[in-house]
Amino acid sequence: MNKIMYLEFERCIGCRACQAACRECGDHDAKERNYVEYVDFTESRQTFPMLCMQCKDPACARVCPANAIQITEEGVVLSAMEEKCIGCRNCTFGCPFGIPKFDFEKNKMYKCDMCYDRTREDIAPMCASVCPSDAIRFIDFDEMQQLRRRRTQMNLVEGKKPQEGNKWDYVPEFFGVYTDSQS
Amino acid sequence: MSQFLVKEGVKNQIRQGEKLVTTHCCYCGMQCGMHIRVDEKSNKVVGVEPRYDWVLTKGKMCPKGVTAYQTIDHPDRIKLPLIKKNGKFVESSWEEALDLIERKFKELQEKYGKDTLGVYGGVSMTNEKCYLVGKYARVGLGTRYVDYNGRYCMSSAAGGFNKTLGMDRGSTLPWTELEHSDCFFMSGTNTAECHPTSIQWFWKAKDKGAKIIVADPRETATARIADVHLDLLPGTDTALANGIMHLLIKHDYVDYEYVQERCNNFAELKEVTAKFTPEYTSKLTGVAVEKIIKAAHIFGKSPRSVVMFARGVEQQVSGVDNVSLYTSMALLRGQIGKFASGVATFTGQGNGQGGREHGQKADALPGYRKINDPKHVEYVSGVWGIKPEEMPKEGVSAYEMFGLMENKTIRGMHVICSNPVVSSPNINYVTKAMEGLDFLVVSDFFLSETAELADVVLPATTWAEDEGTTTNIEGRVIRIRKVVEPIGESKPDWEIIKLISERMEKGKYFDYSEPREIFDELRVASKGGKADYFGVTYEKIDEQDGVFWPAPTEDSKGTPSIFQEKFATEDGKANLAVIDYRGPAEVKSKEFPLWLTTGRVVFHYLSGNQTRRVGFLMEQCPEPFVEMHPELASQYQIENGEKVKLSTPRGHMIVPVKITKAIRKDVMFVPYHWGKHQSVNQLTNPALDPTSRMPEFKVCAVKLEKLSK
């Protein structure tokens, strides 16, 4: 798997199809593992989706006292193994993105696994498959690089140049979630 | 069982013991492609799988689409006919229900004449069924009173297109071309929420530098990504369109060659638009002068542009005028009939396009024929095997039928695939009219608010339990496949129509054993009409990813782009709209000092009868709310989440507040998907457009009150 989850927040229309679709994935037990929030509804309708970054050195796995969170050879950070998870919820506090969730009934943690049963077959995860506005995409590393360069190009076409004070507007608000070492 | 199609080279997850059935979503006009997952052993629907290869939607779905399959095997499904006895529904056999319907229908017709029965249809069902509703009313029951919920949805678009272009196909171009357009002028459409999967095409174009102009009183998710957001007052579209055309003429953006060759009325249009200077337009619409000028320049300079609109401009007393004027904007720029440019309306209901073409409307016969044209009547009578003089006359529009119920002209009613006591304007009146009926039959698969009032409820099937075709937002005829057998004793609407017609001694006109036979009859019935389906076959739909009508001959591949050479008017020329500003039917007053507009949220569909039963969707949006600007909230000392009272002369409702700056300061917005005391349609104004008879859902003057603690 040499693919990247690619988020482009500006495109999010807040429909939450990604959440509904997340529940549809085979191993997901009808529980969503991603979320969509308003940035500030009083100000605007801008929303953003959030899903697991599949960190190279994931905080959730690091803080797990039971070593229950496994990372696949492709780099996908899986939900806690049922037989190992002790239900301490360290992972839910450790993750800076608020991804791991806790099932109080089953006393175990669950999280985004990038629809591993789909992605290991090179089929896009449910959230990226359905996202109507392409705010979430499952694409090749090269395509990601191309998209980032494209943004710069569009800014030039539109005559936009960073000025002192608004440089941050020119940092692409999208970023990739790496699933494979690209070196 | 339907065959199972998967295309070469498209990878899908197919789990062990499951199969995928290729079909489309049941909800809006996008008709997103999807596969439904069926367990092979139990033959039950277990889920959904994206259909990556569907040309229009590429596997994308909104949350309604993802969860649509959950309505099929839903615990609320009606599985047996219900008969109301002593005010309570009792499950009964089909035999008993049909006996009762036969007795009551015949009794009423003998006593009060044929026209005492009415049929109220809907367009969230296949072409086969929509076609049959018209035939059922005219032949099966012999009544003139048939109309459908498209009066609340598409009829102004139809009226406007017919007037200007001579033919009503929702889009003049296939939407796969949209990515090559340079500018979208979208008015009164919150496409990001109402047709979410369309947004991918706008982004594709935007990524190549296309500009988006959105006219809407709210800064919707669509307006948020626009280059210019024209935040106009509800009901002022006529002024805005005239204002933009004024600037197009002033700055020489008019394609004179095209206008001279292909359009009438340019001189008159120039005269009327002369007074719509940016300043005057701004005064009427409440949009800043700079924004109007900027929008006109962007639109005027774009080599390829598409003007698009939806219910926001259509659900007004000047709905037809608005559609005509916006269409004229595209005509002035010489856009209609060319690549990646043209004009389009966003079809709200699943089969809003096909459902309005084949005679479900009070004045229409299949293939967009007219019931008051003797030649048309003669042709269709021939197809149906009746005498032309047996064809009933023109009826009245959906909302006007309630007036006839009130004065006892209509005493019996069959509602098919619709929920008018939620979706009509002024529902307090509508509910009373429906309650006053002597006999009401409702076909539905969930007990809707309308079904609750019925004497007999007949269990219909969901979209996944029957075959057929629909016509999507582009005018592309597509195939809906049967996924599972009907649940319980539910039957598809065409079979219900057949059974009742048999009881009314008209069985020989409805001798169908499967939907394909109905479609083949529809093909002939529409032949030679404007919406000509003669060349459309189920096989052709599969072969070429749908067929665009008109397809007039057996070997026709369909017509993706229309009006390339001439328009469908009598002289082949488009009629530019020459219309002055009239304004909404209701004006603000001291008592009702604010504007109220209504619309959809992404999580619900129409009257909510289906989506209000889906867990995920209800978690996201369980109840209606009123959106208002913080400045307005502050004037009334209202906090976020607080419940307030909204009232109009027609009714009132109590609803929680959502405060956001993404709306005009003088406008409030309430979504309409709920019934009874939660329904904003208690408040809406039933003023009708003079041509399309479409009510003004989108504008009414309203009073806001803070509730005392």
From TrEMBL, chain A:
One Pfam family recorded for the sequence: Fer4_2
One Gene Ontology molecular-function label: 4 iron, 4 sulfur cluster binding
InterPro entries cross-referenced by the UniProt entry: 4Fe4S_Fe-S-bd, 4Fe4S_Fe_S_CS, ET_IronSulfur_Cluster-Binding
Entry keywords, A to Z: 4Fe-4S, Electron transport, Iron, Iron-sulfur, Metal-binding, Repeat, Transport
Domain 4Fe-4S ferredoxin-type intervals: 3-33, 43-74, 76-105
PANTHER family: ANAEROBIC DIMETHYL SULFOXIDE REDUCTASE CHAIN B-RELATED, PROTEIN NRFC
Record-given protein name: Fe-S-cluster-containing dehydrogenase component
UniProt organism field: Mesobacillus persicus
Automatic annotation (TrEMBL), chain B:
Keywords noted in UniProt: 4Fe-4S, Iron, Iron-sulfur, Metal-binding, Molybdenum, Oxidoreductase
Keyword Ion transport: no
GO MF annotation terms: 4 iron, 4 sulfur cluster binding; formate dehydrogenase (NAD+) activity; metal ion binding; molybdopterin cofactor binding; NADH dehydrogenase activity
GO CC annotation: membrane
One Pfam short name: Molybdopterin
Boundaries of every 4Fe-4S Mo/W bis-MGD-type domain copy: 18-76
Annotated InterPro entries: Asp_de-COase-like_dom_sf, Formate_DH_asu, MoPterin_dinucl-bd_dom, Mopterin_OxRdtase, Mopterin_OxRdtase_4Fe-4S_dom, Mopterin_OxRdtase_prok_CS, MopterinOxRdtase_cofactor_BS, Prok_molybdopt-oxidoreductase
The keyword Metal-binding is annotated on this UniProt entry: yes
Cofactor: [2Fe-2S] cluster; [4Fe-4S] cluster; Mo-bis(molybdopterin guanine dinucleotide)
Protein name, entry field: Assimilatory nitrate reductase catalytic subunit
One GO term of the biological process aspect: formate metabolic process
